[in-house]
Task: inverse folding
């Protein structure tokens, strides 16, 4: 097997695979927490792109700062989303996304 | 094949393989642990891209924070009487088809595009100082907004999750 020398495209391909798998988790999973894991995968793939373009770009570190902001947003999103999931569990006694179909009691 | 390529392929296979476990595992706890290996593999890819500070933040925030939060969520919402442990999926075939088309398109686009690239030599340097300077000069407004956002997220999640 002949491996190419590692370059920008390799990281972008890894990021594309991670994005697709995260999308698949978001679409197919019923458990809300697994959907959240898919969202985290998508954010990670975006971060790989930021860092890779920053590395192979013109030498500025703006991509790193963007990746840090993405990590901050991911942390805030996970906290709020899990609070909502806990509330849903207390109300409906399930966390499956397709069984949560009422807006009020 | 040099050490850099060897390390890249090892960590790329680690990240992608554990991602597949996250998506297709029947057990949600296995998915959470596989997600940890995905995060660690991605952090290693950051190090290979000379982003040491972002890699450390990735390990601290994702593995130390978000993943623990997700596992807590699993434990707090686990329904003992429910045999189905969250492993079931819906619409598996059409979703896989659509996602496969999207993945093929993305990979084709990425590999066919003639990217701009500079021949930056592979010289590791400490990025923390530069990132800190950028955060407090060019990006000081998003930095402050992020601080307020984190405060709002903490207060909001505490209010939503409290026992009413």
Result:
């Amino acid at each position: 097997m002949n491996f190419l020398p590692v370059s920008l495209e390799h990281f972008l391909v890894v990021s594309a695979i991670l994005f697709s798998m995260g999308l698949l988790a978001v679409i197919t999973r019923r458990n809300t927490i697994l959907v959240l894991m898919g969202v985290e995968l998508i954010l990670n793939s975006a971060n790989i792109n930021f860092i890779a373009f920053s590395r192979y770009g013109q030498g500025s570190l703006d991509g790193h700062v963007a990746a840090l902001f993405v990590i901050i947003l991911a942390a805030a999103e996970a906290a709020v989303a899990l609070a909502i999931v806990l509330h849903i569990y207390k109300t409906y006694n399930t966390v499956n996304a397709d069984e949560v179909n009422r807006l009020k009691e | 094949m040099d050490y850099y390529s060897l390390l890249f392929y090892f960590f790329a296979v680690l990240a992608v393989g554990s991602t597949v476990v996250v998506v297709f595992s029947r057990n949600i706890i296995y998915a959470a642990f596989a997600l940890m290996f995905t995060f660690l593999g991605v952090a290693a890819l950051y190090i290979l891209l000379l982003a040491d500070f972002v890699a450390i933040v990735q390990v601290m925030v994702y593995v130390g924070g978000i993943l623990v939060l997700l596992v807590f969520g699993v434990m707090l919402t686990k329904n003992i009487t429910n045999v189905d442990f969250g492993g079931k999926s819906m619409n598996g075939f059409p979703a896989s088809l659509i996602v496969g088309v999207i993945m093929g398109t993305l990979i084709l686009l990425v590999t066919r595009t003639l990217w701009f690239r500079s021949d930056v030599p592979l010289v590791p340097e400490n990025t923390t100082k530069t990132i800190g300077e950028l955060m407090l000069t060019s990006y000081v407004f998003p930095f402050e907004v992020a601080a307020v956002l984190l405060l709002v997220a903490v207060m909001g999640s505490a209010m939503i999750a409290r026992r009413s």
Notes: Residues 8-99 of chain A form a domain with the Helix Hairpins fold (CATH 1.10.287.3510).
